[in-house]
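For concreteness, we quote verbatim a single protein encoded this way:
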Amino acid sequence: MARPPAPLDTELTDLTPEARWREWMARVEAVIFASDQPVPREILGRVVGAKCKLDLLLAELEAELAARPYQLARIAGGYTLRTRPEHRDAIRTAFPEVEAPALTKLEGTVLMTVAYYQPVTRDQIGWILGHRVDGRQIDRDLVGRLRRLGLIANGPRSPEPGAPIMYVTTPEFLKRFGLESLDALPEREKLEEAGLLDKARLLSQRLALAQDPAANLPAPLGHMEDAVDPREG
């Protein structure tokens, strides 16, 4: 019968301070390298000593990787190693079969609408975008593809009559676009300060516009369609 592994010595009191620091750094890099998902800070803390200043260690690791073709990145609430943008074309050329499916402009616009206004129903997406984008309605098939790609998921039910599903983005969305959190969405703070992310007010304005097409109301997403490149992989 195989013996269970011995507990990991995280304190490393038998090493010099410099050697202990280097070993901690090597362990953290190894854990991040071995994981196919961003590694939360609390998990990294399991392989270093109680007195390890993890933020300082991560900053030093990031600096050490400066000359490498990959970098330490904080994405979706954890740490991961990502290829630097300047090498993206080389990787896509070498492995075209594993490239993430490209999004159309319409899919990218709908995805960004969910990201900024979540949780949001399909009908609300249509109201926010004016019901049609490039002549197309926001239909179930379009939303369904974003779900199949793992970029959005079902959220809570809306309190509206019929209790329609509300959609939210997923950790995969953050990973695909290299975002640490939703707070890192392009121009989010600026849009919030301008009141353009107030969903209730926006939907009320859209209803008023439907009743009076001559009303002079803002188009909140008119300049955000390219906030995230739909071709981004």
In short: The chain has a mean pLDDT of 85.
